[in-house]
Automatic annotation (TrEMBL):
It comes from Heliobacterium modesticaldum (strain ATCC 51547 / Ice1). Pathway: Nucleoside biosynthesis; alpha-ribazole biosynthesis; alpha-ribazole from 5,6-dimethylbenzimidazole: step 1/2. Belongs to the CobT family. GO terms for molecular function: nicotinate-nucleotide-dimethylbenzimidazole phosphoribosyltransferase activity. It holds the Pfam family DBI_PRT. It catalyses: 5,6-dimethylbenzimidazole + nicotinate beta-D-ribonucleotide = alpha-ribazole 5'-phosphate + nicotinate + H(+). Catalyzes the synthesis of alpha-ribazole-5'-phosphate from nicotinate mononucleotide (NAMN) and 5,6-dimethylbenzimidazole (DMB). Its EC number is 2.4.2.21. This is Nicotinate-nucleotide--dimethylbenzimidazole phosphoribosyltransferase. Keywords: Cobalamin biosynthesis, Glycosyltransferase, Transferase. InterPro entries: Nict_dMeBzImd_PRibTrfase, Nict_dMeBzImd_PRibTrfase_bact, Nict_dMeBzImd_PRibTrfase_N, Nict_dMeBzImd_PRibTrfase_sf. The gene is cobT.
Amino acid sequence: MMTLEALIEQIKPLNAEAMKKAQVHLDDLTKPRGSLGVLEDMAKRLAGIFGEIPKEPLQKAIILMAGDHGVMEEGVSAFPQEVTPQMVINFSNGGAGINALARHAGADLICVDVGIAVDMPELPGLIRRKVAYGTKNMTKGPAMTRDEAIQAILIGAEVVADAVKRGVRIVGTGEMGIGNTTPSTAIIAAIGQFAVEDVVGRGTGVNDKQLQIKIDAIKGALEVNQPDPADGLDVLAKVGGLEIAGLVGVCLGAAAQGIPVVIDGFISGAAAVIAGTICPQARDYMIGSHLSEEPGHKFMLDYLGLKPMLMMNFRLGEGTGAALCMTMIDAAVKISNEMATFSSAGVSESID
């Protein structure tokens, strides 16, 4: 397995010349310049990533990382930890929200056990790469070691590399881990130096009493661990999660492979923040899919300089927003390749 340093060294700047050529082409299409807004921006970004606007829709995959959290001991979630493996079985059986939306987008679903607290059986579509049986309780010390965090990151990057070998040209991030809005909140609070109350949400639907428990747990974890906001890996190891670390690897791995990564919601956003802190160049390969209902998600997107393509009041996670956004990316490819130019259609260019 490669090192984290070697992975980061593979990440290159976008192709500025290709983006200029794409802009010229987009401006020549039979429409007022810029009138297809975000779709045009997306087509131009794809040109920067691939060296040209793709000629056909990209082969897609949602990479869903699963892991459990020791902080569940504090009572931070409305659901028990047993739901994590139960939902992974549901993913394998094709019955979850992400299954429906991945099918709609024409995306494969790749599920990875990077840190579920129990042994999982062999299941269709499940990759078993467990680093540990969940994280430790971050209110009492680091959630994991730095080496465990790096191991999970490299697993995520390896899963992306394997998908690219099979022809995948765009990946989306997804996750499953009961309690994982707690470490995600801790991550953005630590890196952005925000008050916990400003970025915390109710996750799966905790009541007022549970919300206060959650706030106290996050504050306690930050106080005990004192994560360094300038060191993304330090923040990840001390107050993160194994599935979050795996998704950091997906973000970095996609950039290293020269393909775009569609960032889902709040937990995926936490992973993207860590990846963007470790390697700012990786942000150019990230696409913000939607704005989550979790209050901290807006702070994550702002930190990364990303604008969400969709506002759908989603708060499910799993990769659902990323899958839906992939259909919009297909549309960006289609306008570039299927619309006529002014010269080919014999239309006056005076439209504005």
